């Protein structure tokens, strides 16, 4: 035990010591708690809600974990810290200073700023706490800088103080007039002294300028702040101008100052050019500093023309007027641009052409028209072109139709060949009928519209067939072959009129303008030409159809006369024996072949024509057959009959194939039925008067033939029927070899002398025919026979003529 | 002093030692001795208060021969308080005082009749060795303190003593 631990009781009474002991025992003992206990205690208190339960006053701890503190305390500390650091502190700086987590610091800062929102005492901006004091200090500092430099920009200050431009503007604006002695404009703060200085500089520059000067350049040379230039200079210049200290115009956008004296001089130059030449380009005036030359000139010369790039006076027009007159007089065209000064652009020419009185006058009077914007075309020239176009279009339409027909004929031939190969008889017929059928179905199946289209198409394909019907319904034929002439074709045609056309005009040449101009005309002409062609076709068909129908009637009548004559003639021979019957058969067969068959041909042709005329397309082959004037071969007849519309084709085919095997009476009946069934032609009954007329015309016909006859051998063949007609009132159609039979009947009818003459002619004729057809015939004998025959023939002709004239 | 815990040892070392070797029979010396006793006790109480280990109160009669007071022990957050008294033996300071807790008389084997606590094994040799430098303060610190720490929890756990509030 150390000595210093020993008790020293000198000078102290026992009572004092007893009192001291009592005092020591009464003293409250110091509480000694372990850290763990304290933590638990605090935990307990928090659980019980005794501490940290108030809103915004939670219990926090420092980052070291050694200390507890409440939020309220933290707010106090934050505020103290901001004040201590001059009124501005970044939130990120607080944690190391306060040993509190950044999250709590941020919350405390937010709450502080929120509490002080009304007063604006403390603000939280971009993660920084700023107090009013800081802004006051900043204002003072800015003012110091401003007074030193004369001007400061918000931008510079914002950068220097690391504040947003907006905040800096608000700060400075609130201080200007107070702490900051100056003015603020467009982000520039400046002192009155600075303004006077800038004004002096600007005045100097403006007064010194003798030509347009850029104030921007001048001021930057004189070190006027750029912002000041934008913000102050326009006002300053306006002030100076209004006070009359400087004279000129200032363009705010480009900062160009144009002194008054310069403007006047330039104006004079520009106007003198205009006066001298009658025109001036805007570009020239712009170069001379006049920004809106058009308006400028318009103000001074109301009467003149403001064109696209040029301002022109009427003094440029006389050459143009003269050229226009000349053009109309010579019936040609002109490019008006060539008669105006060379600086005129196409746009200018277009403009002036619209304004020039002379051009207006000729156009309105119809003496000429303006095409391709700048070209004037006289009426005479237009007509010339029109004629050329018409000619070309009509020619072209004709050509096209012909080509088309040729192509179609080729097609139908090919089709016919194919059909031929398919086989003949029933199967071919069936195929044909089926094809026709399907076509019909298609036609009706498409309804009204389809029918219309089909008709049109049919008309186009078979120009000469259905075209007439289509055209009569006012439907222009429209297919590839019927296309109107293209612009290129028109251009080609016009180029032929004048090959210089394509060099007149500008972007649009006169050539193309003219072709466009005539396009509609050409189109119409084209349509018209097609229509005309089709009409001609239809007309021809109509005429043929009429001729055929009258010939069918006439021939029917003749037939009945023939038939009656024949039966009359034969009745006279009724008592004859077998040979008479044979003759009768021969005569009837001849009549069927010679007269009934042509009648059947005509009936078939008429039926075909009727089908074509109502728009049915029976094909090119049928068309050709129906057009032919000559009689048909058996094969052609059958083809035509098969080619007729389906409803009558069967009956027609039967007729064509069977008629030759019938007797005359049957054949006559068949022909009459056919004329009414196939082509709807009823044969009127023949009365006596008509019969007489027919026989009379037959006589006249024969007589005319006889008189004009050149062939010696046929005189007898004409003379005998003529005598029959004259003497017996009947019409005979005889084969050559039955002439002798007819001649015998004449015996007794004619005078004996006359009869002998006729018989001798017959004999000699037979003799001549027989001799001349033999091989190795004696030429002399034949010529002597011919001489004899000639005299006989003339005698018989005279005799018959006399017979005819007698009555 | 291996029998005492580190806290006790460090505390006892801070209690001033006494110098006067005098018993109640020595007129002059006893007054001085008594003063020293008080001084040591004051220091001990201050030490206890300072380390938040205050566990007794004590005072003596005017002559300093009879001491009484209270001592307490905290077990399971409950404070158990007992009366404390003892007389200064005639042979003091050669003989240590016999501290009595009358309330616990007969409740434990570690006690002599009349509630005198049994301190013979470790305390007495130490006292003899340090006599006359040890006084009442040392007796409380090295005798009664450790005895209570050893016996009271046992007595409470076995239900021999119970808290006054129960």
From TrEMBL, chain A:
Domain E3 UFM1-protein ligase 1-like N-terminal: 14-297
Source organism, top-level taxon: Eukaryota
GO cellular component assignments: endoplasmic reticulum membrane
Pfam family, one: E3_UFM1_ligase
E3 UFM1-protein ligase-like C-terminal domain boundaries: 691-799
Residues covered by region (Disordered): 404-486
Gene Ontology terms: biological process: protein K69-linked ufmylation; regulation of proteasomal ubiquitin-dependent protein catabolic process; response to endoplasmic reticulum stress
Biased composition (Basic residues): 447-464
Keyword NAD attached: no
Entry keyword set: Ligase, Transferase, Ubl conjugation pathway
The keyword tRNA processing is annotated on this UniProt entry: no
Low complexity: compositionally biased ranges: 407-418
Domain E3 UFM1-protein ligase 1-like: from-to ranges: 581-681
A Gene Ontology molecular function term of the record: ligase activity
Family: Belongs to the UFL1 family.
Record PANTHER family: E3 UFM1-PROTEIN LIGASE 1
Protein name: E3 UFM1-protein ligase
TrEMBL record, chain B:
Keyword Transcription regulation: no
A single BP term in Gene Ontology: protein K69-linked ufmylation
GO cellular component entries: cytoplasm
Domain of life, per lineage: Eukaryota
Pfam family, one: UFC1
Catalytic residue positions: 118
Listed InterPro entries: UBQ-conjugating_enzyme/RWD (IPR016135), Ufc1 (IPR014806)
Gene3D superfamilies: Ubiquitin Conjugating Enzyme
GO MF, one example: UFM1 conjugating enzyme activity
CDD domains per the UniProt record, alphabetical: UBCc_UFC1
SUPFAM superfamilies in the cross-refs: UBC-like
Keyword Ligase: no
Keyword annotations: Ubl conjugation pathway
Family in the record: Belongs to the ubiquitin-conjugating enzyme family. UFC1 subfamily.
Role: E2-like enzyme which forms an intermediate with UFM1 via a thioester linkage.
The protein's name in its UniProt record: Ubiquitin-fold modifier-conjugating enzyme 1
């Amino acid at each position: 035990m150390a000595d210093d631990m020993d008790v020293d009781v000198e000078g102290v009474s026992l009572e004092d010591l007893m009192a001291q002991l009592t005092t020591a025992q009464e003293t409250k003992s110091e509480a000694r708690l372990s850290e763990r206990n304290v933590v638990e205690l605090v935990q307990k208190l928090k659980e019980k809600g005794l501490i940290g339960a108030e809103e915004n006053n939670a219990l926090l701890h420092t980052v070291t974990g050694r200390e507890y503190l409440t939020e309220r305390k933290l707010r106090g500390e934050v505020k103290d810290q901001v004040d201590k650091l001059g009124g501005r502190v970044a939130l990120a700086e607080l944690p190391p200073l306060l040993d509190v987590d950044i999250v709590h610091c941020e919350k405390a800062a937010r709450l502080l700023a929120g509490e002080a929102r009304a007063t604006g005492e403390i603000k939280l901006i971009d993660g920084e706490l700023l107090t009013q004091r800081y802004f006051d200090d900043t204002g003072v500092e800015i003012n110091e800088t401003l007074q030193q430099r004369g001007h400061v920009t918000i931008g510079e200050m914002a950068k220097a103080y690391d504040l947003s431009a907006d905040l800096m503007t608000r700060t400075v604006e609130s201080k200007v007039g107070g702490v900051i002695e100056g003015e603020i404009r467009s982000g520039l703060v400046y002192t009155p002294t600075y303004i006077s200085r800038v004004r002096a500089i600007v005045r100097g520059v403006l007064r010194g300028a003798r030509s347009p000067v850029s104030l921007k350049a001048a001021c930057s040379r004189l070190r006027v702040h750029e912002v000041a230039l934008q913000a102050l200079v326009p006002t300053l210049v306006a002030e100076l101008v209004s006070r009359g200290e400087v004279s000129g115009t200032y363009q705010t956008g480009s900062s160009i100052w144009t002194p008054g004296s310069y403007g006047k001089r330039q104006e004079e130059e520009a106007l003198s050019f205009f006066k001298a030449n009658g025109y001036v380009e805007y570009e020239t005036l712009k170069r001379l500093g006049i920004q809106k030359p058009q308006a400028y000139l318009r103000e001074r010369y109301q009467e003149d023309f403001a064109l696209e790039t040029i301002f022109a006076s009427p003094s440029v027009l006389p050459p143009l007027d003269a050229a226009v007159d000349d053009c109309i007089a010579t019936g040609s065209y002109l490019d008006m641009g060539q008669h105006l000064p060379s600086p005129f652009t196409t746009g200018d020419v277009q403009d002036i052409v619209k304004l020039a009185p002379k051009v207006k006058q000729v156009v309105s009077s119809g003496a000429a028209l303006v095409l391709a914007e700048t070209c004037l075309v006289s009426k005479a020239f237009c007509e010339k072109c029109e004629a050329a176009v018409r000619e070309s279009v009509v020619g072209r339409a004709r050509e096209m139709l012909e080509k088309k027909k040729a192509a179609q004929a080729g097609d139908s031939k090919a089709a016919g060949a194919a059909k031929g190969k398919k086989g003949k008889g029933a199967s071919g017929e069936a195929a044909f009928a089926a094809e026709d059928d399907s076509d019909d179905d298609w036609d009706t199946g498409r309804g009204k519209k389809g029918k219309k289209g089909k008709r049109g198409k049919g008309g186009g394909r078979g120009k000469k067939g259905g075209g007439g019907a289509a055209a009569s319904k006012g439907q222009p034929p429209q297919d590839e072959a019927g296309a109107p002439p293209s612009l290129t074709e028109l251009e080609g045609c016009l180029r032929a009129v004048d090959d210089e056309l394509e060099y007149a005009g500008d972007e649009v040449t006169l050539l193309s303008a003219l072709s466009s101009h005539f396009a509609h005309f050409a189109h119409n002409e084209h349509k018209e030409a097609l229509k005309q062609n089709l009409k001609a076709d239809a007309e021809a068909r109509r005429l043929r159809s009429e001729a055929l129908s009258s010939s069918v009637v006439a021939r029917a009548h003749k037939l009945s006369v023939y038939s009656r004559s024949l039966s009359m003639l034969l009745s006279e021979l009724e008592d004859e024996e077998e040979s008479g019957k044979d003759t009768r058969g021969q005569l009837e067969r001849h009549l069927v072949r010679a007269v009934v068959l042509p009648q059947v041909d005509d009936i078939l042709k008429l039926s075909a024509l009727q089908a074509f005329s109502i728009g049915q397309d029976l094909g090119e082959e049928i068309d050709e057959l129906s057009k032919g004037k000559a009689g048909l071969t058996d094969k052609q007849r059958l083809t035509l009959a098969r080619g007729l519309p389906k409803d009558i084709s069967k009956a027609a085919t039967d007729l064509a194939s069977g008629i030759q095997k019938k007797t005359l009476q049957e054949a006559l009946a068949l022909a009459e039925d056919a004329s009414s069934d196939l082509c709807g032609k009823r044969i009127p009954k023949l009365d006596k008067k008509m019969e007489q007329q027919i026989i009379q015309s037959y006589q006249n016909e024969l007589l005319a033939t006889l008189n004009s006859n050149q062939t010696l051998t046929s005189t007898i063949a004409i003379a005998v029927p003529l005598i029959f007609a004259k003497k017996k009132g009947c019409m005979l159609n005889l084969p050559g070899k039955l002439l002798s039979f007819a001649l015998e009947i004449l015996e007794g009818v004619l005078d004996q002398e006359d009869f002998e003459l006729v018989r001798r002619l017959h004999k000699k004729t037979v003799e001549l025919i027989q001799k001349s057809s033999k091989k190795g015939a004696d030429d002399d004998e034949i010529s002597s026979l011919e001489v004899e025959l000639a005299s006989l023939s003339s005698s018989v002709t005279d005799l018959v003529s006399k017979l005819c004239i007698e009555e | 002093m291996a029998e005492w815990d580190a806290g006790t040892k460090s505390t006892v070392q801070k209690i001033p030692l006494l110098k006067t070797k005098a018993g109640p029979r020595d007129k002059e010396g006893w007054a001085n001795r008594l003063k020293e006793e008080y001084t040591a006790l004051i220091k001990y109480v201050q030490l206890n208060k300072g380390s938040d280990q205050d566990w007794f109160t004590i005072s003596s009669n005017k002559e300093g021969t009879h001491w009484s007071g209270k001592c307490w022990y905290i077990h399971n957050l409950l404070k158990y308080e007992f009366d404390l008294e003892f007389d200064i033996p005639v042979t003091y300071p050669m003989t240590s005082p016999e501290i009595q807790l009358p309330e616990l008389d007969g409740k434990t084997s570690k006690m002599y009749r009349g509630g005198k606590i049994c301190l013979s094994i470790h305390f007495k040799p130490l006292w003899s060795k340090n006599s006359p430098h040890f006084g009442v303060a040392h007796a409380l610190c090295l005798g009664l303190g450790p005895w209570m720490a050893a016996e009271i929890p046992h007595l409470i756990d076995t239900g021999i003593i119970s808290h006054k509030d129960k």
